[in-house]
């Protein structure tokens, strides 16, 4: 078991390693990008990557406080579901409603990798590979559809 400070340091080291690994890779526009803190350009719509003790996950999260506005954006994404799966080349889990770590209601589209741990450096290559291929494809998808979400 790690202390809170040790766990924080390991997580920071993982994300720094991932960021350095991804640094030479440009986005769909050919621009340099901060992959760890991907900016979608749309308020309340986030690309999230998480690595913990038992899993890694990557998701599109909709966190708009107004439920109707959040569901409106979710429905727009749902309308693009077949194109999304075509680009991603796999089926993700679509959750119209889930509750985040704060207990707030949100929506998300998520893919998880089980049986890995950010605290086990032997699993880091699997986690990095999992994130890399998916965040690059998410960027390609977003590059094609973002204009539909701009107001």
Automatic annotation (TrEMBL):
Limits of the DUF4268 domain: 10-145
Pfam family, one: DUF4268
Listed name of the protein: DUF4268 domain-containing protein
Source species: Mycovorax composti
